[in-house]
Amino acid sequence: METTLKRALAILFGGLAATALLLPAAYAQSDYPSRPVTLINPYAPGGPADTLARELASRLKDRLGQPVVVENKAGSGAMVGTGYVARAKPDGYTLLMGTSPGMVVGPLIERATYDGLKDFDLVGLVANQPVVLVANAKLGINTMQDLLDRARQQPGKLNFASAGTGGPTHLAGELLRRRANIAITHVPYKGAAPALQDLIGGQVELGMLSASPVLPFVKDGRLKAIAYTGAKRSSLLPEVPTMAEAGIKNWNEVSTWYALAAPRGTPPAIIQKLSAALTAINAEPEHQRFLAQQDGSIDNMTPAEVTTFAQKDKTAMTELLGALDMLAK
Asked: Across-strand partners of 224?
């Protein structure tokens, strides 16, 4: 009898001790955040990702009740900052402005210290920015059919500028080349600004670039917008057809997407709280106007949905990069 009583008491006190150990962690999750949160932007200050990160941080602060501080960790096409978050403590206090180059394309074309999807818990999609195909207006190319005719009459003569090798602006051009079966030559630049300069100056004939920086030159007539790589038309260029509408079959949307992410193993309660905050932010009219000015579309996704979205993008990019012999050896 005495042995049975001792055993029961041991089990009781053991259970109480285990509960006591779990209480601080559970309280920390319910009280999240209780101190400032760091949002890592894997690009240099001043670019599109930085602008978007600071907009998101400002609105997250209002929703979470704690400061959200943007910290820039640029390098290796977003892989430095992305890798930093992959190794961070999964407590919700270090988040990532995840991007398709840092989470999908970069780890596919060069060896990374992290897995772009397996090492993260995705919270939701922040924005999606497709690419626009433009031509120097002096070429007289006004439609996709004009472009296809010229490219087939003069194979290899037309060049297209991108903002850099391996990014969405480059891969969109390569996908067009494959889907339309035309010979156009890639000319990579270190960013959109120098690419635009040479495109306007006539050093290159075509460009695959984000809509926001090309918009002033389309409006003043120096560039002609031919097609948009998104699934639906751009709010900045509503008169420009999508690639599918322009007649390019089997087109896969090519874009720079931005997703809020946390290190893998972050407590589900924290992921859900961040997801709810992001959904609420996406419903704010001022935020919607901001994204429209950046040619960013809003697609509310649950953590599971954005994970599926990223996995599908990785599958499509693996196929394309493999065809281009760009996969890491």
From this structure: 135
Q: Which of 212, 202, 208 is nearest to 188 (CA)?
A: 208
The whole-angstrom separation of Cα 37 and Cα 57 is: 9
pLDDT (tens digit per residue) in 70-123: 999 988 878 999 999 999 999 999 999 999 999 999 999 999 999 999 999 999
- Laid out side by side, the sheet with 68-72 consists of 68-72, 37-41, 94-99, 255-263, 120-130
Contacts of 49 (CB under 8 A, 6+ apart): 41, 42, 43, 78, 97, 99, 258
Name all domains of the chain by residue range, CATH numbers in brackets. 40-128+255-323 (3.40.190.150), 132-228 (3.40.190.10)
Q: Which of 229, 287, 274 is nearest to 52 (CA)?
A: 287
**Structural contact between residues 128 and 299, judged by C-beta atoms closer than 8 angstroms:** yes
Tokens of 328: 């890491």
Distances (CA, A) of 81 to 39, 49, 76, 78: 10, 12, 9, 6
The rounded distance, in Å, linking the Cα atoms of 179 and 177 is: 6
Q: How far apart are the C-alpha atoms of 237 and 214, rounded to whole Å?
A: 10
The burial class, CB within 10 Å (0-12 / 13-18 / 19+), for 260 is: buried
d(CA 323, CA 329): 14
Question: How far, CA to CA in Å, does 152 sit from each of 32, 145, 148, 158, 179?
Answer: 59, 11, 6, 10, 14
Max Cα distance, the chain (Å):
99
Residue corresponding to tokens 């285990």: 18
pLDDT in tens, 255-289: 889 999 999 999 999 999 999 999 999 999 999 99
Q: Which of 84, 59, 64 is nearest to 73 (CA)?
A: 84
The angle formed by the CA atoms of residues 12, 18 and 19, to the nearest 5 degrees, is 90
Cβ-contact 32, 77 below 8 angstroms: no
- Asked if 37 and 19 touch (Cβ cutoff 8 Å), the reply is no
